[in-house]
Amino acid sequence: MILYFSATGNGKYIAEQIAAATDEKCISIIDCIRGDKYFFRNEKIMGIVVPTYFWRLPGIVARYLEKLRLENCGYTFFLASYGTTTGLAGSMAKEIMARNGQVFDACYSVVMP
Predict the structure, then answer these.
(1) Among residues 25, 36, 70, 72, which is most buried (max CB within 10 A)?
(2) In this structure, are residues 103 and 71 in contact, taking their beta carbons and an 8 Å threshold?
(3) CB-based contact 103:90 (threshold 8 Å)
(4) Distance between alpha carbon 27 and the CA centroid of its chain, in Å?
(5) CA distance 53 to 36
(6) What is the DSSP string of 37-100?
(7) How far apart are CA 30 and CA 80, in angstroms?
């Protein structure tokens, strides 16, 4: 499962590319919020793809991660897209997840044009 937040389409594009390459589904974090979906279990891959906003996580993503719970998920990762720098986006995501006993296996970044 690849979760993404995208205002301009970049995050959606990245998530769709990863989902296609890994035979996973992708879903918008906005759709998860609307559907009250904060719990995922037994996912082989669990990825979070978001843009960097002003060197930070978008506020809506930070609030979503505070409620997100993962159980028995295989490989977990966080990916931040950026223009000049990811700033604190990755650190913020790791800190929020750690407060809930959750850990990412890896963090990535992708520079966008």
Answers:
(1) 70
(2) no
(3) no
(4) 10
(5) 24
(6) --EEES-SEEEEEEE-BTTB--HHHHHHHHH-EEES-SEEEEEEEESS--TTHHHHHHHHHHHT
(7) 17
pLDDT in tens, the chain (113 residues): 999 999 999 999 999 999 999 999 999 999 999 999 999 999 999 999 999 999 999 999 999 999 999 999 999 999 999 999 999 999 999 999 999 999 999 999 999 98
Residue 95 phi, psi (nearest 5): -65, -45
Tokens of 84: 């000049």
What is the Cα–Cα distance from 98 to 54, expressed in whole angstroms? 22
- 74 Cβ contact partners less than 8 Å away, ≥ 6 residues apart: 43, 44, 45, 46
Tell which residue, 70, 3, 52, has the closest CA to residue 32. Answer: 3
What are 52's two structure tokens? Answer: 């960097």
